[in-house]
Amino acid sequence: AMNNSHVAFYDAEYMKEFFDVYDVNDVESVLVYVEDFYNILKSAHKNDELVLESDENYLKITLEHDGNRRLFELPLGEDYGSVPVPPSLEYGTVFSVLIDDLKLPCHDLDKIIKTNKFTMEVNLDELSIISPVDSLTKYKQIIDIDDVMSARTVVDLTYIQQLLKLSKIDKMVEFKIGDNVPVSWSVTSAFEDIHISGLIAPIIENED
Question: Which entry of 65, 183, 199, 205 is 20 to 30 Å from 87 by CA?
Answer without folding.
Answer: 205
